Amino acid sequence: MSTLDDRAPSTAGPFTDPDGPRHQRSRPGWNSGTDLGLLVLRLALGGTFIAHGCQKLFGLFGGPGIDGFAGALRSFGYRQADTLSVITGVTELTGGVLVVLGLFTPLGAAGLVGIMVNTIALKWSNGFFASPGGGFELDLVLAAMAATLVLGGPGRIALDYGRPWSRHPVAIGWICLVIGIVAGVVFYFLLRT
Which of 51, 52, 74, 163 is the 20 to 30 A CA-CA neighbour of 98? Predict the structure, then answer.
């Protein structure tokens, strides 16, 4: 007859049941739902920025084109607005394409974070809500989506899958995120009058 004293010593850890190895719990792992979720996130974010880049560079989708966007930048107090309008449009278009493809995702998404840092700073005085005062809530959501991809990586349904920056996304992500934020702050403070 077995008693409680005859039981083997407990090897319970954070993922085991104190009743023994038969009731062991497995560690939560990566799953296809995570990959599909990241793909949806990439398509939505990247597609949005591709459209905005096309508006700024080519005047598509009712956009202002380079000259119209440069005029808007001048009205916000930016110097060298012609050059900055091209840089912004190219960053949005290229960053959007890279995010959709899941290629060089930390860099592409960090560029988008930098643009959103600028727009949040511009709209800060309007308050949070986009309606009716033109606040920064949408810009913050887009920045958070981009930062999620910078830090979390693109998932396994991506051209980055298996590359070194994809295997350790947080380490590379922090570096890219800081670069994106610093670039946004530098553009905001150094190129405005």
Answer: 74
Alpha-carbon distance 148 to 133, whole Å? 27
Look at residue 91 and tell me if it is in a domain.
Answer: yes
* Position 9 in a domain: no
| Residue at 72: amino acid letter | A
| pLDDT at position 108 | 97
User: Are the CB atoms for 70 and 84 separated by under 8 Å?
Assistant: yes
Structural domain containing residue 176: 39-190
Extract the runs of DSSP E, i.e. beta strands, from the chain: none
* The model scores a pTM over 0.85: no
- The pLDDT score that the predictor gives to residue 39 is 97
- Domain-located, residue 5: no
For the chain, how many structural domains are there in total?
1
- 105-123 pLDDT tens trace: 999 999 999 999 999 999 9
Would residue 59 count as lying in a domain? yes
C-alpha span between 98 and 82 (Å, rounded): 24
Distance set, CA 42 to CA 39, 63, 79, 142, 191 (Å): 5, 23, 32, 11, 30
Contacts of 45 (CB under 8 A, 6+ apart): 96, 99, 109, 112, 142, 145, 146, 149
d(CA 166, CA 169): 5
The 3-state DSSP class for residue 154 equals: coil
